[in-house]
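Duplicate of earlier report; Transcriptional regulator input re-posted below.
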Amino acid sequence: MAKRQEPGGAVEPGGAVEPGGAVEPGGPGEPGNPVELGEPGSPEEPEGMDLVHLLREVTVRLDLAGARFAGRNGLHPTDLRALIGLLDAARAGTESTPGRLGEQLGLNSAGTTALIDRLERLGLIRRVRDTRDRRRVLLEVDERAVALGRSFFGPLIDRTIDLLATFEPGEQAAVRRFLSGVRDAAGEG
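Output:
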């Protein structure tokens, strides 16, 4: 099996560096095998990297907008992610529980409880007893949180919808397929 030499040694699968060694062949971007990018726009840069860079730029701008919203409203970025997760669940018709929210955000139970307490104190969510099982607690987003989010993100959402209206249905389907694929790829590993 051929090995590829890396400057400063080889990176073994799993990230261990073997001084002066080589890397076992594998797909670019696999653990231990970084993607060789070349200069931006150069022939060595893999096809599609311009879209990867554009997606990263969009992600950074949206993250900055979220940070501005959080800062203006006395929220932590995790608070905003929690609200988005709860709103997404409600839109999908999925019940939200503290356990499910904690799992989604990668928080332990103490961190999840502190987050829920904070959002409840701010009047943005409420705990309600499940009508089918009174032992079970569900989380609901208060209309105040929805209005707050709409007041800040509404113009961005409107501009995005206006932009999408200029795309043919097939183009919208391609955008949806791409974004769904990126979402799924980001969830791996």
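DSSP finds six helices and six strands in the chain.

Merging into the original ticket.
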